[in-house]
Amino acid sequence: MTVPHVLRNGPIYLDYNATTPVGPRVVDAWPFLAESHARRLVAAYGTRVKLVLRGVTRAEDLGPRFGPDLTGAEIRYLMRHEWAETVDDVLWRRSKLGLYVSKEDRAGIERFMVDAVGRSGD
To answer: Most CB atoms closer than 10 Å: which of 35, 56, 86, 88?
Structure first.
């Protein structure tokens, strides 16, 4: 029997009419995610969090980490499904994490995106 994970700050609902919280399901499916990371992903993507984390079965599958919790998996999702083409698309237009990422992480995101585009054409 699986005991559902209860988030410390309460459940996350997709909207006011939702009856089943999404947050506990995310933490149960990806138990290696920090609660704050799971909350941010659910708040940002709702049920699409399954697409963001598709193929992720362990922390290493998230890819590189930039800033507090922006990962390669999220950047790949943004590039494939939300047409993010530049670092600014990722940091300001899609994730709104621009305030939390250092110049070094910003450069790392740019390198990651260039590499991802090169690999997608192979």
So the answer is: 56
